[in-house]
Write a structure and sequence with these properties.
By secondary structure, the protein is mainly α. The chain contains eleven helices and four strands; from the N terminus they run H-H-H-H-E-E-H-H-H-H-E-H-H-E-H. Among the domains are: about 70 residues, no CATH class; about 110 residues, Cytochrome c-like domain (Cytochrome Bc1 Complex, Chain D, domain 2, Orthogonal Bundle), CATH 1.10.760.10. The protein has a two-stranded antiparallel ribbon. A two-stranded antiparallel sheet has the order 3-4. Strand 1 and strand 2 form a beta hairpin.
Length: about 280
Amino acid sequence: MKSILIVVDPGMAVLIIASIILLLAILTASLVLLRALKTALKLTTPDLQLEKKEVKKEKIQKTNQQTFWQKVLGLRPMEEEEELLIDHTYDGIQELDNPTPVWFNALFYSTIVFAIGYLLFYHVFGWGMNQEQEYLAEMQAAEKQRLEFLATSGTNIDENSVELDLSPEMIISGQEIYLQNCGMCHGNQGEGMIGPNLTDEYWLHGGDIKDIFRVVKYGVPDKGMVPWESSLTPIQIAQVSNFIASIGGTNPPNPKEPQGDKHEELAAENAVAAEIEL
């Protein structure tokens, strides 16, 4: 490794040191002269110095007079309006160059922070549920509560207390039970296959809701209809019975020929329903 030897001229070193000393002397002399001028100015113009002090004192007092709320609301005294006037005018109207209030800036920037946090929380990291997820969760909770209510309130339903209920919830639940247990014999649309047609006005064992409930519950063993009281709860029997009552007069394709006696009350209800649809 090669070493580098730097040779300094003694004359140059002396010149640099002398220049530094001269600059320091000039700086010291300037400071002394400035202090002397200030002292002389105070002695020769005492009124001017006193006026400057008063002006400075007034500014300090005016600044201290502004309360916290004045700063927050961006309020300025009326006497300062001339300082806020903008040079240009339009149709003789002048405009004040008022600063934006602190509260407005705080609100504006807080909305930006909230928007960024909302985006990250719900859409980037997925820590929270979005609107669709909340809706599905609420629907699942409501469905659970509905089933629990039906399970507890439907235990006392029998062929004597059951009532016709064509509400959408009852019909949808009854349709699910029907398709799982009854469609193989009566057809998925109630048109009849092994079992009779459930959509016409003719019934073998009665066509009102109590008759339907009784047949579903106890079955018709001599006709091959099994009893469902051991497989379905009372509320489930009520649901499927109401679904069967709701499909009367629907006229599905390829219906089985009528069997049994005509149910006059059901025929009248179907005629009224048809008129309403028309």
